[in-house]
Fold this protein.
Amino acid sequence: MSNHETVNEILVRLFANILDIEEKCLKIGEFSDLSITEMHVIDNIGLTSERTMSDTAKAVKVTSGTLTTAIDNLIKKGYVERRRSSEDRRVVKIRLTERGREAYKSHEDFHKDLVTSALERLSSHEEEVLIKVLTNIDEFFSEKYKHAGWY
């Protein structure tokens, strides 16, 4: 197998495994009523006091309509609050409820544990090499696909 094929296989498997692990952990945890997409919306809203719907849609890379559907579901489930701006009625602001903040912190802890578990097997030199390699891959994707409007 060539290096290109090996890297491709590892990246595809790694991305799929991380999403699969994240989904399975979500389904057995306290926030099992959330989909992985909903959790990522919560993660993007974060612990800010408020965010606009349009900023959140851009950051999550979905249309306003798709985000509206997700936010409607998150409001029904008690994770998000929505209100119109008093300065400009066209602007819709969202923020996490207390339950939403708990879900955010749980997801943040999951990612910290994931990284800690991955790094505990590496020496400090291997950690530095991994960071350099991942940074290079991230910069490559960012440069290559930003021009296409995908990133």
About this structure: The two ends are 30 Å apart (CA to CA).
